[in-house]
Protein 1
Amino acid sequence: MNSPVEESVNPNGSTTGLGHVVGDSVDVSHGPILYLDDITVSFDGFKALNRLTITVDAGELRCVIGPNGAGKTTMMDVITGKTRPDEGTAFFGQTIDLTRLTEPQIAHAGIGRKFQKPTVFENHTVFENLELAMKADKRVFASIRARRTAEEIDSIVETMETIDLLPQADLAAGLLSHGQKQWLEIGMLLMQEPQLLLLDEPVAGMTDEETAKTAQLFKSLAGKRSIVVVEHDMEFISEIAATVTVLHEGAVLAEGSMDVVQSDERVIEVYLGR
Ligand SMILES: Nc1ncnc2c1ncn2[C@@H]1O[C@H](COP(=O)(O)OP(=O)(O)O)[C@@H](O)[C@H]1O
Ligand SMILES: [Mg+2]
């Protein structure tokens, strides 16, 4: 019997949906892993993004902040192919033109996205959730390699250590706290080895302790992965960020270290308040 995922395998052998990720295919030889230039997105004449230009280097942990409606989520929609820009350039590494790819192709190329609400499989254990995330990648080989390899188990255990859920390996995901579910979902993304991770408000609804642990998690990933985080929690951002980009009315208002951005008059005016 064919599983739904097997049915989604297209003729050239790659999978769609969660996608098979070929992480090392992205060319970052010149530094940037993400390059958006002059991106404009209009909704009925309203410019959600208005000539947005932003560059993220390989291995960077970039924070994006800005008032509601600034265009943060729309920016992520453009990067992941959910929304097509009216104008502008969007490149993943040197060679991959994001404006020419579909959503599954972009996931396949190595961009992983986490939405705000956790979407783990509640009736499956932590281990199984991570295994499923990995298998979504490799199900094309399921018939010839039905059993888990030692290498696969190692990689699941390593991820459980990274997200600090090793003691909960055999616990049903539905029994985890909200914060732990968020970590599990980050772990599920990591199993697919994306080169660029996009996270929209990952600490929303977390306790202070969970937020602090998430900051540690992101810092531990810095350098190994390129990460773009949209967040409102300024304490969290100051904990993790090297460079902060402030969006306002669909464009970059300010960019720099937390100190520089926090003391920028325009940023104080539109976002931080007096
Ligand atoms: N599909 C859409 N149709 C119409 N307007 C939209 C759509 N998506 C976003 N917008 C508008 O674009 C602006 C930017 O939205 P968004 O990117 O969600 O901002 P943020 O994530 O920074 O709060 C908002 O004014 C929003 O109402
Ligand atoms: Mg948003």
Protein 2
Amino acid sequence: MGLNWLLIDQETWEEVDPDELSYEELLALGEVVGIESRGLSADIIASLPSINYKAGSSQNGSNDSCVICRLDYEDGETLTLLSCKHSYHSECINNWLKINKVCPVCSTEVSTAAHS
Ligand SMILES: [Zn+2]
Ligand SMILES: [Zn+2]
């Protein structure tokens, strides 16, 4: 589908009214122009496991403060646990993963449980 956009000649192009383009056509145009995101989709971010932080219980491999906002976790706060076992405030890591799909600490690419 994207190829068609590359092949249209100038004459055809001038007849294209952007207001008449469908959503899919606009998306295809965006792909040609090169708009892309290196982050994760909201669906994938939402599917990451979350845990409740408990002060004092040393969870295996997890840190006890959030490197993104540099605050210590409070008892009962909701954290998102990445596949590399690093954890962050859900709100902090959600915003991070929209831009960059790697763990801020160890740079492991965040994988989902889709392929086990
Ligand atoms: Zn945080
Ligand atoms: Zn990590």
